[in-house]
């Protein structure tokens, strides 16, 4: 069924219209919100004046940051992508024993925030620090982010293409190279770009691992100088680095290869691993141990060993409620704001819609502190009553995570033909009602996935929560940060553990659901 | 020994046996249709011949070379058997020319094999198009060109015209058959459409629940189906109660000649096809009442009552009204089957 | 039906979540708002003692001190903060320089020596900590320890020491500027960048020394002393060292607090500041951190050496907001 819809969606490209009024108005909200941090960065940078900008940026230090940032943002997606392809091939196309369990095991590190796993690894010794360590640890962290979309793409392939290639004399490896890889390339590249933009914004992990990037330097600037000009300039550079990410993602989607025909539901013939079974199992076990086992064991050690353990346990319950209390409404708001962006660009055409759809990807690569300080600046001047209210935090959350929601919803929207809306209108519904009654219900798988992923992301959010939430707010992430800053690792461990367990729930449900049925095409970040 | 020889092939998925010992022989240059309802195992058999999966037991040989026998399995990529899957299924990331050249060596591509295959299939000038930019019929022909380009020894087509609409389907299928014939290709065509099988094939194998119910040329299959189920699968049937008397049977429509090889006596079911009911001349045949007449352009479909029984017949160059009576009888030969 | 139930559940979950943040928002109507950059355990102990003593509730926002200073500057006149408690003196000095702080009651200022307060009396030092060199006893002999922190900029110490660019480092730079002049300080920073290894926190650097990852580190004193209290000084591989004499390595830094001019509850703010320097206030803080009390007649429960040996001729007030230190760090390519 789903592939039939995909077929229609691709063939209906000719009659794309401008968005209706309600939609145009609806995209102005996220558009305006996302413009704020961009405007803040530009205005603050402009304060430096042209010569100030030159002298601030043209320094050897900037070059070091640029090199480190690009190294992380390049090597991590490449390595993680290679591992993810191999793992996905094993679980989807080979007769791997307990494939279902392995899928979950490979996806579970999603529940482990990067700063927790980096903290764990860096505590093991200096060998795991600096660039090499950072690339490896962040690679392990990023594997599930690439594994899930690659699995989904593999499942979406028509297995009879493999048969055709074999009947034309191609061996397995040639088929992988010439048939499978080109078809999963859009999914692969999309995931790689998003991992790349995560790496641009990564702070906690890199600070544990002693690698200086633009983001850590921006934090350092905010920590060092009580004028935020240089930080704004560095943020500007970071946004420029996000520019190719944001637009390449859109290009990839435009060039997504059309699947031909309805395909068939036959599952592909699983490749017999034979003598490779043991090496494959060992490799996957090693991957799981490195990406999830080691950080988990370290947390366990701190839970058990920490001399300060037990001090903060009474605070876990309020922190847990705090995390949920921010992450869930944040996810709802973000998802609501993302829907019109996706609709406007999937079913309609227009320059404003296109721009509104892309800008969030630009901001997504910025560290939270930049967006948070932009929010302080604007709220103080123009929206005093919402300053230091939960509402402002939720708005900032939305600005930070819109692309997470957009990608998931878009994956669903591409499977829902616009004809659904047309049919509803022919039955007498207004465009808005037609959308609510006919299109929206079919987007629910993507909307659900978007909500889960955004919530997962928000539960880890630290900087914006610290700076913007009403004083006295506690979440698992802020408590973990507070306690590690206070060197109370034993006391911090329960919060990290609670965060991992709490994150594990959406990850498990999400993985099970998305890998059970190929009705849901998933893009995750 | 035939060109393609399938002997006693069995296969199972898990505990369930899907094919229960298939025997099949296809002469060189012949087109065989595998006809059957969905789930009867016809696609499975095709995949075994292609070598995508090994058989549990049995033997498959092509042109004297054993491809499959207990303990030895030549994989698909070394069989040189062309394959056109359901709906053609082109590589979406490759152009028409890219698809057709997929199975060719670069030397073969330099020789112009792609252009040759495109010319053969009427795709000239479309080489640079992507699959979603061409029509359904063109997609189908690209898939065929792709399979033909490496000059395979055998071509397998798995319900290749399913996705096409009915008019396109007839013309594309005729094109493809003409092409296969022009190439003197040996081919197996899987289909559930008897019309397609009749039009395309030299031989039709009717499959049922993992076995072959009958293998015969189209006319024999249509006129002398092995049993009533095969009869129903190959077209509409009229069944009459009758008494056998050697070479003919007595029925409510009078005496009907039987095909040879039905040496039975006593009560039986007599099988007729629609077109065997015709208007009788003079006082021959039996009287029938017209209950409905449907104008169909080149003929009128007439519903008749004969006693308690109902028939349909096609009348050409004539009009009748409901309520009219006319006399009908059965022409040609019929097959007889045990009464129960 | 199943879908309906799921939606109902979802709706219930979402409204419960909204309700829970609404509750948080309500809790913000307390009488005193504290922006806290000091280690949280210390502040929590202080606030608990203050509320017990006065009945005044305190709502605390925790973050890094410089971030909070940036935030207060952005907030300007609308800042909800009443009191800022900074872990180091430069962030609060930056608020002083921008004229955002209110004068502190003379009676409160009188509780501490003048060198522990800003010259204009807008902020007070509340805890003192010293800069030290932590070293690994197995990796460095006593003879190989530097005679001055200035030695770190020589090739002899290449690869042997770590430094942390926050939390005390700027004060150290300012001390070198103060004692030896700007050119010397720049030279030193260039050497440190060339020969030293940068860590992202004093705690991390101290642990790295203890674990033998690096021989020495420039750090704050209390990390080692709290390790020593947990495990026993004799069981540690590391020890602390101070160069002899009036070296720039021997400085005393302050955690400091002040009242915002825009405070809506200046009376409670001043009471809080006074309480910080009171005996119960100091005792509450000293119990949680190996820092020095700033009032007479108290000693830290941690086994700290006398503060008298930290003789660098520079006070926190001299360091100001350490603007010059940042400029020098930039010039040396450290930031």
Number of strands of chain A: 0
Query: Can you count the helices of chain C?
Result: 13
* Beginning-to-end CA distance, first to last residue of chain C: 60 Å
Number of strands of chain C: 11
Mean pLDDT of chain C: 87
Class per helix and strand makeup of chain A: mainly alpha
Order of helices and strands of chain C: HEHEHEHEHEEHHEHEHEEHHEHH
What's a quick, concise take on this entry?
The complex is a heterotrimer of chains A (about 525), B (about 350) and C (about 325). By secondary structure, chain A is mainly α. Chain A has helices spanning about 1-10, 20-45, 50-55, 60-95, 100-105, 115-120, 130-155, 160-165, 170-200, 205-210, 215-225, 230-255, 275-305, 315-345, 350-365, 370-380, 390-415, 420-425, 430-460, 465-470, 475-485, 490-515.
Descriptive report:
The complex is a heterotrimer of chains A (525), B (340) and C (335). By secondary structure, chain A is mainly α. Chain A contains 22 helices and no strands. Helices cover 23% and strands 38% of the residues of chain B. In chain B, strands 7-8-9-3-10-11 form a 6-stranded mixed beta sheet, sandwiched between helices. In chain B, strands 2-1-4-5-6 form a 5-stranded antiparallel beta sheet, with helices on one face. Chain B has a 5-stranded mixed β-barrel with strand order 12-13-14-21-15. In chain B, helix 4 crosses helix 5 and helix 5 packs parallel to helix 6. Chain B is an alpha+beta fold and 340 residues long. Chain C has 13 helices and 11 strands. Chain C is globular. Chain C has 335 residues and is an alpha/beta fold. Classes of the chains: A mainly alpha (525), B alpha+beta (340), C alpha/beta (335). At the A-C interface, helix 11, helix 14, helix 16 and helix 21 of A face helix 1, strand 1, strand 2, helix 3 and strand 7 of C.
């Amino acid at each position: 069924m789903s592939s039939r819809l995909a077929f229609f969606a691709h063939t209906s490209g000719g009659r794309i219209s401008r968005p209706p009024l309600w939609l145009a108005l609806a995209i102005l909200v996220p558009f305006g919100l996302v413009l704020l941090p961009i405007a803040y960065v530009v205005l603050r940078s402009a304060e430096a004046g042209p010569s100030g900008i030159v002298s601030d940026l043209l320094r050897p230090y900037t070059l070091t940051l640029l090199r480190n940032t690009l190294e992380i943002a390049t090597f991590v997606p490449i390595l993680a992508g290679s591992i993810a392809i191999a793992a996905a091939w094993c679980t989807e196309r080979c007769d791997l024993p307990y494939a279902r369990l392995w899928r979950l095991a490979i996806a579970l590190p999603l529940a482990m925030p990067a700063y927790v796993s980096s903290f764990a690894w860096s505590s093991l010794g200096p060998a795991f620090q600096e660039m090499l360590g950072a690339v490896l640890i962040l690679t392990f962290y990023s594997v599930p982010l690439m594994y899930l979309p690659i699995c989904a793409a593999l499942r979406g392939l028509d297995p009879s293409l493999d048969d055709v290639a074999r009947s034309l004399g191609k061996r397995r490896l040639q088929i992988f190279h010439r048939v499978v890889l080109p078809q999963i390339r859009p999914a692969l590249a999309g995931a790689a770009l998003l991992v790349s933009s995560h790496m641009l914004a990564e702070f906690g992990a890199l600070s544990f691992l002693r690698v200086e990037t633009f983001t850590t330097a921006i934090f350092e600037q905010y920590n060092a100088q009580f004028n935020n000009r240089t930080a704004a300039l560095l943020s500007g550079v970071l946004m420029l680095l996000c520019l190719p990410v944001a637009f390449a993602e859109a290009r990839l989607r435009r060039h997504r290869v059309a699947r031909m025909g309805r395909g068939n539901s036959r599952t592909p013939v699983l490749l017999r691993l034979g003598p490779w079974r043991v090496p494959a199992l060992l490799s996957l076990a090693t991957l799981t141990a490195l990406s999830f086992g080691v950080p988990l064991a370290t947390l366990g050690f701190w839970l058990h060993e920490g001399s300060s353990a037990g001090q903060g346990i009474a605070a876990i319950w309020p922190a847990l409620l705090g995390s949920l209390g921010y992450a869930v409404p944040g996810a709802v708001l973000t998802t609501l704001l993302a829907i019109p962006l996706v609709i406007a660009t999937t079913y309609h055409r227009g320059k404003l819609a296109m721009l509104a759809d892309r800008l969030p990807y630009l901001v997504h690569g910025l560290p939270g502190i930049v967006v948070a300080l932009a929010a302080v600046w604007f709220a103080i001047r123009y929206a005093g009553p919402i300053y230091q209210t939960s509402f402002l935090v939720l708005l900032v959350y939305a600005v930070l995570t819109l692309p997470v929601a957009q990608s998931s919803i878009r994956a669903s929207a591409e499977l829902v033909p616009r004809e659904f809306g047309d049919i509803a209108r022919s039955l007498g519904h207004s465009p808005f009602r037609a959308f609510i009654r006919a299109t929206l219900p079919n987007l629910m798988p993507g909307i659900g996935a978007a909500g889960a992923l955004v919530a997962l992301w928000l539960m880890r959010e630290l900087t914006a929560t610290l700076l913007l939430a009403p004083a006295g707010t506690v979440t698992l992430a802020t408590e973990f940060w507070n306690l590690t800053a206070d060197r109370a690792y034993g006391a911090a461990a329960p919060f990290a553990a609670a965060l991992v367990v709490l994150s594990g729930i959406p990850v498990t449900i999400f993985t099970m659901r998305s890998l059970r049925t190929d009705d849901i095409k998933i893009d995750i970040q | 020994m035939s060109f393609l020889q399938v002997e006693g092939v069995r296969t199972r998925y898990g505990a369930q046996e899907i094919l229960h010992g298939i025997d099949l022989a296809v002469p060189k240059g012949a087109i065989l249709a595998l006809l059957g309802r969905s789930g009867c195992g016809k696609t499975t058999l095709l995949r075994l011949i292609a070598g995508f999966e090994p058989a549990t037991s049995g033997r498959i040989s092509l042109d004297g070379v054993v491809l499959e026998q207990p303990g030895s399995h030549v994989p698909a990529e070394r069989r040189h058997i062309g394959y056109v899957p359901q709906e053609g299924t082109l590589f979406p990331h490759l152009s028409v020319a890219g698809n057709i050249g997929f199975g060719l060596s670069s030397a073969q591509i330099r020789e112009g094999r792609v252009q040759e295959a495109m010319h053969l299939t009427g795709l000239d000038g479309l080489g640079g198009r992507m699959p979603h930019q061409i029509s359904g019929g063109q997609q189908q022909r690209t898939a065929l060109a792709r399979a033909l380009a490496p000059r395979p020894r055998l071509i397998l087509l798995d319900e290749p015209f399913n996705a096409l609409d009915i008019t396109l389907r007839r013309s594309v299928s005729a094109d493809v058959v003409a092409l296969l014939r022009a190439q003197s290709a040996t081919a197996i065509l899987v289909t559930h459409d008897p019309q397609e099988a009749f039009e395309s094939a030299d031989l039709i194998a009717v499959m049922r629940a993992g076995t072959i119910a009958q293998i015969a040329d189209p006319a024999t299959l249509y006129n002398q189906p092995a049993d009533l189920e095969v009869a129903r699968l190959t077209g509409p049937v009229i069944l009459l109660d009758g008494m056998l008397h050697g070479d003919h049977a007595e029925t409510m429509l009078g005496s009907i000649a039987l095909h040879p090889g039905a040496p039975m006596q006593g009560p039986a079911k007599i099988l007729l096809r629609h077109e065997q009911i015709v208007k009788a001349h003079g006082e021959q045949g039996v009287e029938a009442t017209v209950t409905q007449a449907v104008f169909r352009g080149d003929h009128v479909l007439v519903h008749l009552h004969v006693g308690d029984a109902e028939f349909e017949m096609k009348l050409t160059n004539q009009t009748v009204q409901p309520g009219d009576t006319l006399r009908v009888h059965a022409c040609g030969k019929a097959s007889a089957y045990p009464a129960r | 039906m199943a879908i309906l139930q799921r939606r109902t559940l979802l709706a219930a979950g979402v409204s419960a979540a909204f309700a829970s943040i609404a509750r948080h928002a309500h809790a913000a109507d307390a009488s005193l708002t504290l922006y806290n950059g000091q280690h949280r355990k210390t502040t929590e102990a202080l606030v608990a003692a203050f509320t017990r003593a006065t009945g005044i509730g305190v709502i605390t926002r925790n973050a890094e001190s410089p971030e909070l200073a940036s935030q207060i500057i952005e907030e300007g006149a609308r800042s909800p903060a009443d009191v800022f408690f900074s872990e180091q003196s430069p962030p609060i000095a930056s608020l002083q320089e921008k004229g955002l702080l209110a004068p502190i009651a003379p009676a409160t200022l009188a509780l501490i020596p003048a060198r522990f307060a800003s010259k204009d009396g807008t902020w007070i030092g509340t805890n003192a900590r010293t800069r030290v060199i932590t070293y690994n006893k197995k990796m460095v002999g006593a003879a190989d320890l530097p005679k001055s922190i200035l030695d770190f900029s020589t090739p002899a110490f290449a690869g042997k020491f770590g430094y942390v660019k926050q939390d005390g480092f700027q004060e150290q730079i300012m001390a070198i500027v103060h004692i030896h002049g700007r050119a010397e300080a720049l030279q030193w920073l260039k050497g440190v960048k060339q020969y030293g290894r940068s860590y992202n926190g004093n705690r991390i650097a101290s642990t790295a020394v203890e674990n033998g990852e690096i021989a020495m580190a420039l750090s704050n004193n209390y990390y080692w002393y709290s390790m020593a209290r947990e495990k026993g000084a004799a069981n540690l591989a590391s020890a602390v060292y101070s160069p002899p004499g009036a070296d720039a390595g021997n400085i005393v830094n302050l955690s400091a607090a002040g009242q915002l001019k825009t405070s809506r509850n200046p009376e409670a703010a001043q009471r809080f500041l006074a309480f910080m320097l009171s005996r119960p206030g100091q005792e509450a803080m000293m119990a949680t951190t190996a820092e020095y009390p700033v009032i007479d007649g108290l000693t830290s429960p941690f086994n700290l050496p006398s503060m008298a040996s930290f003789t660098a001729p520079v006070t926190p007030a001299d360091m100001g907001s350490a603007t010059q230190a940042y400029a020098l760090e930039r010039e040396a390519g450290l930031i």
